[in-house]
UniProtKB/TrEMBL annotation:
Transmembrane regions: none
A GO term, aspect molecular function: hydrolase activity, acting on carbon-nitrogen (but not peptide) bonds
Residue ranges constituting the Amidohydrolase-related domain according to the UniProt record: 126-467
Entry-linked Gene3D superfamilies: Metal-dependent hydrolases, Urease, subunit C, domain 1
Source organism phylogeny: Bacteria, Pseudomonadati, Bacteroidota, Cytophagia, Cytophagales
SUPFAM superfamilies xref list: Composite domain of metallo-dependent hydrolases, Metallo-dependent hydrolases
Protein name, UniProt field: Amidohydrolase
PANTHER family registered for this protein in UniProt: ALPHA-D-RIBOSE 1-METHYLPHOSPHONATE 5-TRIPHOSPHATE DIPHOSPHATASE
InterPro entries in the cross-refs: Amidohydro-rel, Metal-dep_hydrolase_composite, Metal_Hydrolase, Metallo-dep_Hydrolase, OTAase-like
Length: 481
């Protein structure tokens, strides 16, 4: 049974009048660029959401904001630890480690009367850091439902926003407590409001690192098949040259972009193949402008030349990288640029075009992707977990993890990529690890995902910022190893 421990805003506000004394002093997070700013009001609502939830679901009638989590084992972002316990208080992890030590400390705090302790039994489960999706589009839905062109041209922004709120909820319930959302694809700055709605506790969803509109060279990223006499809206913001690029980067940052995304190449014009767009000097200018405000730049890049320019221009991650070469991957390694391979998007698109997976031979594009992904691994490139989810269903983010294993990564390396590695790549200094003083963003799955990656789908518990959003109580005991 799913218990979604989230209450609509109205109820939270109502409860807050009664129980305001339960809230302690606000401390800002230590890394302000991407960290979720928690206003005293938001924090109050969150604490009270949980208080409300407990009285609603467990009928304890008591304020609780201290948890002892008892899974069979903990993946801390790097390794598996059998029998570990995790103690969470408010929005942070307080202590992680051996059962005896953690339980003694947690119970001591209970007897001092400061924080009544709630025991969360997660028998049969592996507890992991909340997963970090590296490449999502919450404003898109699968292309076999509606083509990208039609989503951009025919869907009202209000419709797209309504869908996005549901996508955010599905993402969180699947254990993804953070997403790097790489462009609204024609939905203007609507990711800003979505992020705020999640922050303010109006809707459940993951923490969001947002790119807003993204940047493209003029004419390069639009719905296709129209007469050149018609001006078709683009999927991102067009800008070129010195002044216009600086203005566009600053405008996007001013409106709320945490990261600047550029399209370093695209299938533009009549030839239908990916060709570079921005000049190297233009990319350097974008990167410098974004960096001066403390924000990274990342690039959509599929062609070898587009990738080369994005790497030399200073982009921190490359998205897709389909036509990378051993030389390009070696350059990425040397410059410390991570690859977000988006294997699941390519796999999904090939199937939308008619490929019957498991029956037909793999199309050329898929065969090549296997080869280039292997080349990236061999070159030691840091792999950022990110599936380009939106091309396929939100909440099905695990599909990329399964494909990373299918294409040659060890399951434990995939888990590292989706937690501690992505946190590092995205400058999230308090996420991606189960560690003292880190955000209490946690997911428990039944089974042993470091052996069977698909176990990441068996989500039983999701906590974000110390608030429980999901807790399924019927658990089967873990089979003996
Ligand atoms: Zn994308």
């Amino acid at each position: 049974m799913n218990k979604i421990l989230f209450l609509p805003n109205k109820r939270l506000v109502k409860i807050s009048h009664k129980l305001s004394s339960a809230v302690s002093v606000w401390h800002p997070p230590s890394f302000p660029t991407f960290a979720e700013y928690i206003t005293p009001f938001t924090r109050l609502k969150r604490s009270l959401a949980f208080i409300g939830v407990l009285s609603l679901i467990h009928c304890t009638g008591m304020a609780q904001n201290s948890f002892l989590l008892k899974p069979d084992r903990v993946f801390d972002g790097l390794e598996i630890h059998e029998g570990w316990r995790v103690w969470v208080r408010d929005e942070k992890i307080v202590l992680v480690g051996e059962q005896k030590t953690v339980e003694a400390e947690a119970h001591k705090s209970q007897t001092s009367g400061r924080n009544p302790l709630q025991i969360i039994d997660l028998k049969g489960c592996t507890l992991l850091p909340g997963f970090i999706e590296g490449h999502s589009h919450l404003f898109l839905h699968p292309y076999n439902e509606t083509t990208w062109d039609d989503q951009v041209l025919k869907e009202a922004r209000s419709l797209r926003t309504a869908r996005a709120t549901l996508h955010a909820q599905k993402t969180l319930m699947a254990g993804f407590t953070t997403v790097r959302d790489l462009g609204t694809e024609g939905a203007e700055f609507d990711d800003v409001g979505l992020k705020q709605a999640i922050h303010q506790g109006i809707i459940p969803g993951p923490r969001m690192i947002i790119a807003t509109k993204a940047l493209i060279a003029t004419g390069s990223y639009a719905p296709k098949g129209f007469s050149p006499d018609i001006d078709v809206p683009q999927g991102a913001e067009e800008a070129d040259g010195h002044d216009r690029l600086i203005q566009a980067v600053r405008r996007q940052i001013g409106k709320g972009a945490d990261v600047i995304k550029i399209y370093a190449d695209y299938r533009w014009g009549l030839m239908g193949e990916a060709r570079p767009t921005f000049l190297l000097d233009e990319i350097k200018l974008i990167v410098e402008t974004a960096r001066s405000s403390g924000r990274p730049t990342i690039a959509h890049a599929g062609s070898a030349e587009g990738m080369r320019r994005a790497i030399l221009g200073g982009c921190e991650t490359l998205e897709h990288g389909d036509a990378g070469t051993p030389e390009i991957f070696s350059l990425m390694h040397d410059k410390g640029v991570a690859l977000c391979p988006t294997l699941a998007a390519g796999d999904a698109v090939a199937q939308y075009r008619g490929w019957k997976k498991g029956t037909d031979q793999e199309p050329e594009r898929i065969k090549n992707k296997r080869i280039t992904f292997k080349q990236a691994l061999d070159a030691g490139v840091t792999i950022c977990f990110g599936g380009d989810v939106g091309v396929f269903s939100h909440g099905d983010n695990a599909r990329e993890m399964e494909m990373m294993v299918d294409y040659g990564m060890k399951p434990i390396d995939v888990l590292r990529s989706a937690t501690s590695t992505n946190a590092q790549i995205f400058h999230l200094s308090q996420a991606g690890n189960v560690k003292a003083n880190f955000w209490a963003d946690l997911v428990a799955v039944e089974g042993r995902p470091e052996e069977h990656i698909s176990d990441v789908r068996k989500v039983k518990f999701v906590m974000k910022n110390g608030v429980i959003f999901r807790h399924d109580t019927s658990l089967n005991p873990m089979p003996a190893k």
